[in-house]
Amino acid sequence: MTEAPLLEAVGVAKHYPVKKGLIVSRQVGAVRAVDGVSFALNRGETLALVGESGCGKSTTARVVMRLIEPTAGDILFKGQNVTEVGGARLRALRRHLQIVFQDPYASLNPRLTVADAVAEPMAVHGIGSAASRRERVVELLRLTGLRPFHADRYPHEFSGGQRQRIGIARALAVEPEVVVLDEPVSALDVSIQAQVVNLLGDLQQRLGLSYLFIAHDLAVVKHVADRVAVMYLGRIVEVAPKRALFSDPRHPYTRALLAAIPRPDPSRRGTVTPLGGDLPSPLAIPSGCRFHTRCPLAQPLCKESDPPLREIAPGHTSACHFAEDLPRFDAEAGAGLAPVAARRLAAFAAARESRTAEPTPAPVPAA
Amino acid sequence: MGVSNAPLLRVEGLRTLFSTSAGDIAAVDGVSLEVPRGKTLGIVGESGCGKSMLSLSIMGLVPRPGRVGAGRVLLEDINLTGLTPAGMRAVRGAGIAMIFQEPMTSLNPVHTVGDQIVEAMRAHDAGASEAELRKRAIDALRRVRIPSPERRFGEYPHQLSGGMRQRVMIAMALACRPRLLIADEPTTALDVTVQAQILDLLRDLQAETGMSVILITHDLGVVAEMADEVAVMYAGRVVERGTARDIFEDPQHPYTIGLLGSIPRIEEDRERLLSIDGSVPPPFALPQGCRFHPRCPFAIRACTEKDPPLRELSPGHQAACIRAPVEAVVECLV
């Protein structure tokens, strides 16, 4: 695996100037939404970018797509600098990089039928004829678990989960290599969320896609990601292969995030001390380590010196001065699912499996 | 805190109806519940299950053209569904208070948070002086652990973070010391670390005041963290009721089982999540028989014919499924 990464971000920053004065406006500061972010996405993998609101994860996704121009830094796709190209070459590059947005209600044009919405990217990129595009739409609908007759319906006729499938079909229409998934399941109900998470996994396997998965929910990330990058206030604070990040996190913020997730297990109740304080404003980023104002383990050094992201184990980087010396992490303790409940889940899955083997399509409410 | 063991709130056969040209549709369709004193009842379900409409029905806040069509809501021995609007206003505040999902939309952006708390207090205590109310409002902010409450008193909602705003809402709701707090998705709009702070705060305030809480949420993790008793709702009905342990360790309704399988868990490394096929039926297109049968892998012919009532399986644990107890079904499959 010495292959060069498919997509790379190098020192990407996005600062928004804050101005004062109506007539003679002058810049009084900057919101440092993304402040020097570097990562690499390898072919066929899922890299999750996680963090809480305001950490810059969605801005990073948009900069990668060049929907927003970065203030500094480069985006490399197959070694080619995306930030420098324009016009037709940019459009050609975009064919390989597609995005699925969070809100399946806002991201589909209500006046376009599903067929038109899904075919639109192909038309933009001049792929195929109207007839061949129509064929491809039907194929894409099947691929994403929708049915051919859905092609002539409008977005309002679909549920949230089905709309997200349409969004995915549309992103896949031009056969991209990288799909940026910006909180693709956050707006969905749990049972529907599970359907879409499973679909994304199946599609990745079948089509060899690479995913940049933006999320705030670490439990979802645990199910989809190969590697995880944790962001805090515009910076990446830790990157690790999934297993290492969840079992042996090496940044106090990652630990706080993991500990804060409410576990569906009443016997673990109240075992977590929540992180204190509020997220600092991106207008006034703390000196030294950005997390020191809320870090339960902060030392005097943390206030003074900004720790760089450094490798502490192969493939595992952390931006904490004391990454090696953190106390043992035991958030994984706890039984998880009770044995009786686990058996029932297995029975549910088995019954469902044997049912879907028969040709009974899932009913679709004709709302 | 009363010595009585009788529940603080009882909901009996509640139906909330919306009139449409095609006839009445029931958003809440025959729900019965009990909220024990000093405890938390968690109501879980996905969007459209009727959980929010249920809480609005308890509060007497069903939006037009909806109405409570049948059933009773008893706060101790007062039947809330029989009260006049003025009578209900008196219950709100000191009897029942409510907090909502999005604190920004529940706060008035052009008044300071202090003035809004004072206003809520004045509505229930016309006799108190301005200075007295101000002092009490600052105390209320301090109780919800807002740092430098004197300064925050004079700030506007937009100057506060989401977590701080939700704290203000809680301060306002608790200002008149309600006996029941209804929290409708109180942490859904918040980040996980802030959510943990707010849940922690709610737990402490409950221990301090002995109030009962109805926590409405779609998040089974939040329920497991907070609830003593749980009701699982599906398509306007309660399909399973029991203690938190019953629901998480001995789930009986296939919908509960499916939900438990759908949540991604941090402790586990399953490649695939269990999912429930299809989606929640809208209230105007409910299936015949059991409302869950089209999505249920355990469904048999009888499920398509008869709508199962809630049945007691063990003391305090009820499920609305003719196949319950499911252990025999599970035995054949695993």
Automatic annotation (TrEMBL), chain A:
Keyword Repressor: no
Record SUPFAM superfamilies: P-loop containing nucleoside triphosphate hydrolases (SSF52540)
Record-level Gene Ontology MF annotations: ATP binding; ATP hydrolysis activity
Main location: membrane
Residue ranges of domain ABC transporter in the record: 7-258
Cellular component GO terms, alphabetical: plasma membrane
Protein name as annotated: Oligopeptide transport system ATP-binding protein
UniProt organism field: Muricoccus pecuniae
From TrEMBL, chain B:
Family, similarity comment: Belongs to the ABC transporter superfamily.
Pfam family, one: oligo_HPY
Keywords from the named record: ATP-binding, Cell membrane, Membrane, Nucleotide-binding, Transport
GO molecular function ontology, one term from the record: ATP hydrolysis activity
GO CC annotation, single: plasma membrane
Domain ABC transporter, chain residue ranges per copy: 9-260
Species in which this protein is naturally found: Muricoccus pecuniae
Extent of the signal sequence: none
Subcellular location: Cell inner membrane
The keyword ATP-binding is assigned to this record: yes
BP GO annotations: peptide transport; transmembrane transport
Chief location category: membrane
Entry-linked PROSITE patterns: ABC_TRANSPORTER_1, ABC_TRANSPORTER_2
The keyword ATP-binding belongs to this UniProt entry's keyword annotation: yes
Name the UniProt record assigns to this protein: Peptide/nickel transport system ATP-binding protein/oligopeptide transport system ATP-binding protein
Mode of membrane association: Peripheral membrane protein
